[in-house]
Amino acid sequence: MPSQFLVIGTGRFGSSIASALYDFGHEVVAIDEDEHALEPVMQQVTHAVVMDATDEEALRKLGIGGFDTVIVAIGENLEASILATVAVRAAGARYVISKADGQLTARVLAAVGADEVVRPEHDMGRRLARQLASPAQVSALELGPDHTIVELETNESMMGTLADLRLPSRFGVQVIAVHREDELLVNPGADFEVYLRDRLVVLGRNDEIAALRDLLAE
């Protein structure tokens, strides 16, 4: 079942997050107070709305409590990011992720109500370092302290149907998508055939993913 996301701010980061979530089959509403900033992403989300994200009443009317996650992607303007984070929390957001440009900003956003703070350049640097240190792991997205979504390249030990591979029972991980050359295959079924050099996008606990990564590194 698709999740519902609200993305506030449609700069480069916000647009990228919104369109990627939409491509993965989720319902995405993007808002920005600048109509021109919304135009490039209008065809890549479920709905696009021109509104002030610091207006609590407008956020309530939008039904903010119905979204699984709200992403405040205004990182370039500290004041606007803080006010939007406070507003979405006050309006009833379930889970808030806010973008920060630096460590001090991250601390402030966490203090005013963000459940999670991301620092794209910092986080990308850490992911690149992790990739270089663990070549079998292509990329990763941390989901809090215990869970991660990773993209892992298969080898000879990881071929066959998903039913035969039994990844949920053997490792406790779920395959949510597969990259095959330039194609993204979302929510593959049990009869999906995994080929050599496919890249599996899997979700699981960090220790479970570590065990699967160890197998692929052999």
Describe the protein's topology:
Layout: E1 4-8, H1 12-23, E2 27-32, H2 35-38, E3 47-50, H3 56-62, E4 69-72, H4 78-90, E5 96-99, H5 103-111, E6 116-118, H6 120-133, E7 137-143, E8 147-153, E9 160-161, H7 162-165, H8 167-171, E10 174-180, E11 183-186, E12 193-194, E13 199-205, H9 206-217
Parallel strand pairs: 1-2, 1-4, 2-3, 4-5, 5-6
Antiparallel strand pairs: 7-8, 8-13, 9-12, 10-11, 10-13
Architecture overview:
The protein is of the alpha/beta class. The chain has two domains: 4-118, Rossmann fold (3-Layer(aba) Sandwich), CATH 3.40.50.720; 123-217, Regulator of K+ conductance, C-terminal domain (Alpha-Beta Plaits, 2-Layer Sandwich), CATH 3.30.70. 37% of the residues lie in helices and 28% in strands. The strands form three sheets. A six-stranded parallel sheet has the order 3-2-1-4-5-6, with helices on both faces. Strands 7-8-13-10-11 form a five-stranded antiparallel sheet. Helix 5 links the parallel strand 5 (96-99) and strand 6. The chain starts with a strand and ends with a helix. The mean pLDDT is 86.
Q: Roughly how many Å apart are the termini? A: 35 Å
Shape: elongated
Query: Taking all residues together, what is the mean pLDDT?
Result: 86
Structural class: alpha/beta
Describe the biggest sheet?
Answer: 6 strands, parallel
**What is the helical fraction, as a range of percent?**
25-40%
Counted by DSSP, the helix tally is 9
CATH superfamily of the largest domain: NAD(P)-binding Rossmann-like Domain
N-to-C SSE series? EHEHEHEHEHEHEEEHHEEEEH
Quickly name the level 1 CATH class of the largest domain.
Alpha Beta
**Using only CA atoms, what is the Rg?**
19 Å
Strand line-up across the major sheet? 3-2-1-4-5-6
Which residues form runs of ≥5 with pLDDT under 50? none
Which strand-content bin applies to the residues? 25-35%
Q: Which architecture of the largest domain per CATH? A: 3-Layer(aba) Sandwich
Overall number of strands: 13
CATH-assigned fold name of the largest domain: Rossmann fold
Number of domains: 2
